[in-house]
## 1
Amino acid sequence: MSECIFCRIAAGRAAARIVLEDEAAVVFHDLHPQAPVHLLVIPRRHVVSVAEGTTEDRELFGHLLLLAARAARLTGVADSGFRIVTNCGANAGQSVFHLHLHVLGGRAMRWPPG
Ligand code: 5GP
Ligand code: ZN
């Protein structure tokens, strides 16, 4: 089976504009940004989505949220506000089936989302 694109980015086998990384996760700029700042936070380990998470993922999922907040600070959108989104499955519009948090900032967001 071919490796998914986010596994390839996490392993350094595909290019990405990386903002920060550690042993468990990588944060990089989205290829098609939907806001002035649009980051993706991914675990290095292949997890399909939050929906597939188990209690064993408790620490990892918490870690991803903290990294999202840290990346928002690093990219200068923390004070003005930002949104964290994770799409799970077809109706949510998930297109890459490797868990990722979108971090969107730098403009006002609407609610409810489309
Ligand atoms: P989803 O639709 O699954 O919630 O989000 C997938 C996101 O990944 C999209 O915003 C899309 O622009 C981004 N994306 C897809 N392929 C790549 C890639 O190869 N590199 C980067 N940096 N972003 C990607
Ligand atoms: Zn993957």
Note: Residues 5, 16, 28, 30-32, 40, 87, 93-96 surround guanosine-5'-monophosphate (ligand 1) (CB under 6 Å).
## 2
Amino acid sequence: MIRKKGQTIRLDTPNTTLVIKADTAEYLYYGKKLMSAGGFEALSPTPRKIFSQYGENDYTEYGVLIENSDGGFSTCFSFSKSKILTEKPEIEGLPSSYGEGKTLELKYIDAPTKVCLYLYYTVFDDCDAIAVSSRIVNQAKKEICVRRLASLQLDLLGDYSVVTFEGAWARERQKISRDIVRGVYYNDSKKGMSSHSRNPFVIAEGKEGVYGFNLVYSGNHKEAFERDEQGRTRALVGMNDFMFGWKLAPGETFCAPEAVMCYAPSEDELSLSMHAFVAEHIVRGKWKKKERPVLVNNWEGTYFDFNEEKLLAIARAAKDAGAELFVLDDGWFGKRDDDTSSLGDWTDNADKTGGGLANLADKIRELGLEFGIWVEPEMISEDSELYRSHPNFAMKVPGREPTRLRNQLCLNLADERVQNYVVRSISDVIARSGAAYVKWDYNRSLTDCYAKGVAQGEYFHRYMLGFYRIAAKLTKKFPFVLFEGCAGGGGRFDLGTLCYFPQFWTSDNTDARARLKIQDGTSYGYPQTVMTAHVSACPNHQTGDSNPLETRFNVACGGVLGYELDMSKLSESDFATAARQIEFYKKNRKLFQFGTYYRLGDVFSSDVGGFMVVSRDKSCAAAVVSVSGKVLGGPVPRVAFKGLAPSAVYDVTTRPQDNYAAEQAFSAGGDLLMNGGIFLRDLFEDLQSKENSGCLYTRMYLFKKNKI
Ligand code: DGJ
């Protein structure tokens, strides 16, 4: 709700309040919901600007930097007026959140030039996250150049530490915390993708609670935190201004991507709010609330080495085990037998697919499975028909050797003709195969950003606009297809892609121990509904480690479940175990995919971790608890559950596992289970604990509210 009363504008979400001074548009308060209605003047002796610019007595990181037509960089945007809008303004060309709510518009004018700056704050009725965006409208008579436009600025008072989610390929979103003592800290990407290295989701943690920030964008981003001599920590969130410069002719508008901010008393509560925001206001379309199929993907089972016979054998076994969707991964097109060729040639390799995709897909459907297909639409191999006929489609700097990553180049998506080629060729793949699912991969970052006719400073962003145009067209054209984003694992796991693709491949690392951390880190900002997680073969192909099949399954239940191995090669007993797992998962799928998700223990700082999902009415729950190291003679690990109804009594059982004889069954109060926790002594009495020393130990606890 947004109300303008006297000298204040007040934005209320269910649990938070943001107060803005009506005459100067400065922040007065942002935090826990206020029940009182006045006295705001007493709050802030230090001005907390809502945006900052070069040219005034403020030397911290600027939110807005404009190169004026006279070559100077000073601006003096001053507040002009505010408006409460009932319709959320569209951000042209960019994805953004949606839903019922109100939007506050703040307008600023740079008097000498008449350039206008608009800020938007959208408050939804059902969620604590506030969507914030900014735009520049050039009402001057001459061209200007936008050098930086942050989407969101928040000046915080006091000491803060910044929590980021960083990593690399196969090690995405590891939680790192650092104090912002003095100086500037940047969490950013210059890779042309939100990146494996630093996710745009960040948290500022202080004594009064935590503030979470994210960006609805998949390209270069920058989250800056500057602690100044006044004890103020400025948070700026937006597109990266690295190499950036956007020319704006008179009358033109530049829109920055939407950002989101959220206050909560604790990390756990912040995650719950971010999950609700993503599930309700980012993910859209037919799959938003629909249970996702259990898939079997052939990638780790075959890599490039497959033919129709092998694929059908995997599919038959998948069907027998209870899976619902077969996904054909990389290698089915052109003459691709390894990663050196054919990207861009989305034509069937008849030898590997038994006469073509349509044929193969029909056979898969005859088995009773849906058919899904892998594509990497934004790329081109130099050894491809597309490159031979359209070398100019590739992103390259003339006269320079391009940087090749995974032997491939990027397509120049800043060019509309290239975008149209992608839409055409991928539409054809979906149409001719009747695919019910598409895995959209992206296996390298941008290095040779250049295109004739495109200003260098605009290239990165024009690429993203091209990608979004393609994604919008294809998802509109195929509304029933389930799209899964992927970027060499989780390299573009962000709110921008999630506006088009309702789920994302969390990481190429399918090792259960590594996955626990990757999924746990991801869960701070994103719900389990958008994280996909597969059971794969052991020794694991990424780490070489082995973990019991039941452990791999337990961990994969923390996301949308799939299997990624040659199911036809499983031993009889492993096959039976997998079939039991799938049956169990399908019965409890709604709980796993759409229940309220909590982290348990702390995988980043202790040996005990895991997660828990609780049904919306708290009548049932499931928890996966993990112990990652043996503590001999030490304290017995203990875990406290979360999210249960405190006064209810729950019947607790353990899911039968083939490597665990002694099942548990007991009843206890919700408050006891949450506050007292239970000891995990039995995890060390595992049948396999001696054979597989070094394994991750997991148990799944199931909770049912006792009727009495
Ligand atoms: C990277 C993806 O993350 C993998 O799952 C797989 O699809 C390969 N690319 C295929 O090249």
Note: Residues 599-705 form a domain with the Immunoglobulin-like fold (CATH 2.60.40.1180).
## 3
Amino acid sequence: MSYLSIEGGALLHGELTIQGSKNSVLPVLAATILARGVCRIENCPHLRDVDASIAILRHLGCRVRRDGTALEVDTAPMARCDIPDELMREMRSSVIFLGAILARQGEAVLSYPGGCELGPRPIDLHLAALRELGAEITEVGGELRCKAKCLRGTDLTLAIPSVGATENAILAACGAEGTSVIYNAAREPEIVDLQALLRSMGARVSGAGGSIITVEGGAPLHGCTHRVIGDRIVCATYLCAAAAAGGEVRFTGVDYRAVSTVALALAESGCEVRSEADAVSLRSAGALRSVRPVRTAPYPGFPTDAQPVLMAALLKSEGCTVFVENIFENRYRHVDELSRMGAEIRVAGRVAVVNGVRALHGAAVKCTDLRGGAALVIAGLSAEGTTRVTELTHIDRGYDAIERDLAALGARIRRETT
Ligand code: EPZ
């Protein structure tokens, strides 16, 4: 078993290029199924979730070759339309493959993706959108059996701006005859990146980044080369790490606008934040102030994925900060672990109240989920003494060697194996 050993107290200094975005590369890899030919996807991070996606593509019969931080996907040999249970369990967001498989093969079979650490992860909006496009979907014994002799373009409205449901609807609509208009679409930057990839394949998609996305389906799609955008949540994580530990850092490879709500909160806490086109700098004396209530919301609101890491940065701030988690039902599982380090946090339903403490102390803590794990690392950087973080598989789903990046900035952190 491997764990991270962190000696708190080191300032963070230096510059880092942020890895490619996990939440962009996953739907992008699913979208390659729509192209008959080879897609070269660049800036692909080395992550467990990317490995899971590669395993699914290979199971379907596609050839996938990793070339450093690029992946070459050849879907010509694709012969299957099912995702087996063990691959679905590896990564619940594998449901993002559903629309693309359906569009390509006319049928798809996958086991019902279970919930995850963040609570039940329903896919009713995904299924409703695909049914509107003409898919027949039955749920038999935990398995989703989908058929679509011919997907037909239509106007559809998402009850909530779900990121995954928006992506599934776009991918299925690309394979539908006629035009689809998706209303109340998610506006995340990862959707804009998916549109850019699809356009490179020859798809006619427009409106991504706004709430109304139009897809003129049916065009034969070809291979392409696409560079994935930088990971805004990894950037937000490292900004929070520097804010908590103190120091001066600069991160490149991420559009500032994609992290602006997090940068604004850190500026309010007393950090000096400077933005450039595709870079952001932060200077912190380490002593932070509490900030006005942080309410998570769909993009461009405050990202739910940054809630745990901003919370970790504010554990020693002067005063009290209120968090309201409006996206997921169970996204405070990191709170108990942070409390083991001396944090003072009270949770009531969707609300968490952080009372800043004078000091945190190192402890043995366990990752509960991907971003909750990152929060523990941030707390360890600003704690007195040594923190040991276990259950690293959670962190490795979304961070490409977090210890390498933070050590490069001066953190006293290393990965050990027992
Ligand atoms: C994506 O998950 C991200 N994952 C999540 O990042 C992120 O937290 C989330 O969007 C919100 O931004 C990927 O992109 C791979 P949603 P997704 O559908 O698509 C409810 C991380 O840490 N909902 O926008 O699953 C759902 O329960 C991960 O990188 C339905 O009710 O999120 C949630 O409350 C965690 N029915 C809300 O919508 C549905 O059919 C938003 O979920 C779908 C979703």
Note: The mean pLDDT is 96.
## 4
Amino acid sequence: MSHKKTIFSGIKPSGDLTIGNYIGAITQWVEMQEEYNCIFSVVDYHAITVKQKPEDLRRRILDITKIYLASGIDPKKSIVFQQSAVPAHTELGWVLNCCGTYISDLKRMIQFKEKAGDKQDAVSVGLFDYPVLMAADIILYDTQIVPVGEDQKQHVELARDIAKRFNNQYGPVFVIPEALIKKEGARIMSLSDPMKKMAKSDDNPVGFIALLDSPEVARKKIMKAVTDSGSEIIYDPKNKPALANLLTIHSSLSGESIKSLEKKFAGRGYGDFKKELAEVVAVFLTDFQKKFNKISDADAKKILENGRKQATKLADAKMEKVRKVIGVR
Ligand code: TYM
């Protein structure tokens, strides 16, 4: 491999991808393709930590692949593959469960606490153990940088700890990865509750804009989005969290800076701003979906198969080393 740094990231097919996933994660990836060895995975084994309908899961795996491509991920520059097609991920996950991870690590994971709520003993072991599989995804490829949204920071930090502990015990097998989080847009919030993250698994569809929502539906969701008291268009996340979120969405999709949006809307109200944002979102989705619809299932499958071969080569070489140092075959 070249001396370029390696980045790895992924999205789990557990629901319809939102503009949060796009802004927080995918846009970073697209920019990084020129300067890094990039590996992007559809991390399907992460989706089954909660119940999934097999036919929905199959559909979403292809849809996410198409979303990567429609966003500008170029399979000639980047490896695009499906996690379950490379068994080394789950194999390394087991090894890391045993060598490098403590139950106390997993008990303090914010996402686990949020997802399990007061049912911590009644959810699947997979939901609890999920960050270890994520650590395996990352360190399997000598990844240096992991571009993710803010909610994944703690998981990447755990991957660092696990890799360090493994290396301490067995020698320098793994590269220690680092999270890369955008300054703006790393945490897009729900349109119906600015204290909650915009999530693909949200039961309330008004809270998120899916990348495959029709532009008309998306427009309505923006117009219905909650706003704060007052009327001035200023970026003030503390006192105007809902508006700050809408400004961030606008800026991320239109490329206009928040400063210039504040200037443009000086003296105008929320209604005007939302109308323009609705238009920005509709234009973005129309263009995005045009690209998405041009990609066939067959194209997506071909790209995944090609990616599987490339990823397998790297992953198998690393697993050979791991098996050797721990003393199995
Ligand atoms: P997932 O599938 O929940 O989300 C995929 C990516 O989108 C980011 N994201 C957001 N960014 C900004 N605002 C939001 N509202 C928002 N919601 C989601 C996430 O931070 C993430 O970058 N565990 C991971 C998937 C994973 C992974 C990995 C990531 C598995 N293995 C290895 C990186 C490296 C997850 O559940 O992301």
Note: The two ends are 26 Å apart (CA to CA).
